[in-house]
């Protein structure tokens, strides 16, 4: 018997218990032994839950039990979760998590702690919910230099944008529905302001850079709260949808990362990605493009990824074999280029009277007229580097947004 403990019995934690029970026989066959939840550590009681008898409030009981070799951290946040994760890893117990905030904030330290104590720290569920992306990026694509990642990595915002556009649901109502479905963070500000996507991009970029840690703080981030219905309707007029994208570029001049709303063109593979679904396009210099698509949030999809990690952690792998090795650069400087230097394709829109000014400002770029009716809009298809704000702010009434095609 392989015993595990679940710390935090919220949406994802309870999903983990449910998936382990639902697929008990399949899992036993895969592992060659039964996997049993011995404890559920939570401050709350869960009367009526089929797992009620496993609930304990006594952390010492769980940590001191030598039979528990793997602990699931689905507490969330970076306070108690951080303390408990450090405690477990220090005791040589592997930890499996869906907590992107913790991985993005303290990843290097926790991975180092795991390595020192011959155990592993796994976080497949931290990005993309149920979509396999961490292990494929870390292992299957290891032969590549990753030149680009572009992803819809937040289910809540994609759900909100889809429902506002297609069903005329208000922003507030769409957010409420996302919360009711268990997609949103405890504090949904993290979703709508792009912080959740920023954390996920920090994780993806750190893996893409082979363990050079990209701190969330160096990722310029804009969420969806300032978007208007007009932006969403305008997108439709130019054959686009508005999507919140997390972007990592790794060119000859250096790497750059940002999170921002984009006009996504209908020709793009990201265009049909709706509702809570996430999709992450990874471009490797040998592979070319691959897209990872699936349910990016929600109880059972996220639990699916957590349980996958549990099975890896309980199996007799060479200790630490899968552990990542993130290191903070010794010069304490930033790893990626400042946002002003990030390369992007953009859409510029302005009143019709300013059409010539827009054309003149981007005359040296490859462009395509997006709209010339009521207002003027230009797809700037050549990569704009560094001076977007300066160029656009000089044009009366002009606005710009990133574009993905
Ligand atoms: N709040 C997150 C989202 C949960 O909406 O994508 C999954 O990480």
Structural account:
- This protein is α/β, with parallel strands linked by helices.
- The chain folds into three domains: 2-129 and 300-314, Rossmann fold (3-Layer(aba) Sandwich); 145-296, Dihydrodipicolinate Reductase, domain 2 (2-Layer Sandwich), CATH 3.30.360; 340-404, 2-Layer Sandwich (Alpha-Beta Plaits).
- The protein has 14 helices and 16 strands.
- The protein has helices spanning 11-22, 24-31, 59-63, 80-90, 100-116, 134-140, 155-167, 171-180, 189-192, 195-208, 229-237, 299-314, 355-361, 388-393, and strands at residues 2-7, 35-41, 55-56, 68-73, 94-97, 121-122, 146-152, 220-221, 240-251, 254-265, 277-284, 288-295, 343-351, 367-373, 375-385, 399-404.
- The strands form two sheets. Strands 7, 8, 9, 10, 11, 12, 13, 14, 15 and 16 form a ten-stranded mixed β-sheet that branches. A six-stranded parallel β-sheet has the order 3-2-1-4-5-6, sandwiched between helices.
- Helix 5 (100-116) links the parallel strand 5 and strand 6.
- Helix 5 runs parallel beside helix 10 (195-208) and helix 7 (155-167) crosses helix 8 (171-180).
- The longest helix has 17 residues, at 100-116.
- The protein is elongated and about 75 Å long.
- The mean pLDDT is 94.
- L-homoserine (HSE) binds at residues 129, 154-156, 183-185, 191, 196, 296-297.
């Amino acid at each position: 018997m392989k015993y595990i403990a679940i710390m935090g019995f919220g949406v994802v934690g309870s999903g983990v218990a449910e998936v382990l029970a639902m697929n008990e026989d399949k899992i036993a066959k895969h592992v060659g032994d039964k996997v049993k939840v011995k404890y559920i550590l939570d401050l709350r009681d869960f009367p009526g839950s089929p797992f009620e008898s496993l609930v304990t409030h006594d952390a010492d009981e769980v940590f001191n039990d030598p039979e528990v070799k793997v602990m699931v951290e689905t507490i969330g946040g970076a306070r108690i979760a951080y303390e408990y994760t450090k405690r477990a890893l220090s005791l040589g117990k592997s930890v499996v998590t869906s907590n992107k905030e913790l991985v993005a904030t303290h990843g290097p330290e926790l991975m180092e702690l795991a390595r020192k104590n011959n155990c592993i720290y796994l976080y497949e569920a931290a990005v993309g919910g149920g979509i396999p992306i961490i292990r494929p990026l870390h292992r299957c694509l290891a032969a590549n230099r990753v030149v680009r990642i572009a992803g819809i990595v937040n289910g809540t915002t994609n759900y909100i944008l889809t429902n506002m556009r297609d069903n005329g649901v208000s922003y507030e109502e769409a957010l409420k529905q996302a919360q009711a479905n268990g997609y949103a963070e405890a504090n949904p500000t993290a979703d709508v302001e792009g912080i959740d996507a920023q954390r996920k991009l920090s994780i993806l970029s750190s893996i893409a850079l082979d363990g050079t840690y990209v701190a969330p703080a160096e990722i310029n981030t804009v969420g969806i709260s300032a978007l208007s219905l007009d932006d969403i309707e305008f997108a439709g007029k130019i054959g686009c949808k508005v999507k919140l994208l997390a972007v990592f570029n790794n060119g000859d001049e250096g790497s750059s990362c940002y999170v921002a709303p984009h006009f996504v063109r209908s020709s793009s593979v990201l265009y049909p990605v709706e509702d809570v679904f996430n999709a992450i396009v990874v471009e490797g210099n040998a592979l070319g493009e691959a897209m990872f698509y699936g349910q990016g949030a929600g109880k059972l999809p996220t639990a699916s990824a957590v349980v996958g990690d549990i099975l890896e952690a309980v199996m007799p792998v060479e200790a630490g074999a899968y552990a990542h090795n993130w290191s903070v650069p010794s010069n304490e400087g930033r790893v990626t280029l400042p946002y002003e230097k990030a390369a992007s394709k953009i859409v510029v829109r302005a009143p019709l009277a300013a059409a010539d000014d827009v054309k003149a400002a981007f005359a040296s770029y490859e462009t395509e007229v997006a709209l010339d009716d009521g207002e003027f809009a230009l797809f700037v298809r050549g990569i704009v580097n560094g001076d977007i704000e300066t160029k656009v702010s000089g044009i009366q009434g002009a606005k710009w947004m990133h574009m993905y095609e």
